[in-house]
Amino acid sequence: MQNLTNKTALITGGSKGIGYGIAAALLAEGMKVAITSRSQEAADKAVAELKKIGKGEVIGIAADVRKFDSQKEAVDQVMTKWGQLDLVVANAGIGHFASIEDMTVEQWHETIDTNLTGVFYSIKAGLEGLKQSKGFFISISSLAGTNFFANGSAYNASKFGVTGFSQAAMLDVRKYGIRVTTIMPGSVATYFNDHQPNDKDGWKIQIEDLGQMVVDLMKMNSRTLPSKIEVRPTMPPSA
């Protein structure tokens, strides 16, 4: 199994939810982790909590995945501080749910630009660093990337796109020793879409579960690649 101590990671949208759970799991393994958020205040608040884990090293960076230059600057900060980039997790995401009739042009672009273009920018910005380390790129898609639903046109389009993009990217970059995995969760206990995690969320996938999954992927022998992983709650409530 791979030793993760002192390896480095950049996690987009890491100030809460799935990104935060992944950051916590990697820090517990002794990794050096940079999390990004559009808000430096949110990033700093998350870093203060993550530092309580007592292992690894963590920094917060204000970055917007919708802008390539911003994502490149985040990667440059990681490379300047730690000199290597072993893992990029493209996690930042947003959801606008409405019928085609009610979906605004602005909501459409924000969803596609964040959820899909942001994934492209993340691997594009980190590619040279990942080549050097023969590293890992993980995109967080969704079961909505294979299952469409009413009022989900923008979100479905973005996540179908992430799934397809990531699998094609995997074929493009594996010649450099870079591994690419797409994780596709179902219901997760997060703040997504203005939800407030609560005691009734116990049946859902928890953020620490996805954090453990990323650790397990990183530790797996590099000869083997789980390229696409669908993740569901074991016992969802009965309809």
From TrEMBL:
Pfam families: adh_short (PF00106). SMART domains: PKS_KR. It comes from the Bacteria. Residues 7-205 form the Ketoreductase domain. Belongs to the short-chain dehydrogenases/reductases (SDR) family. PANTHER family: 3-OXOACYL-(ACYL-CARRIER-PROTEIN) REDUCTASE, 3-OXOACYL-[ACYL-CARRIER-PROTEIN] REDUCTASE FABG. This is Short-chain dehydrogenase. It comes from Belliella aquatica.
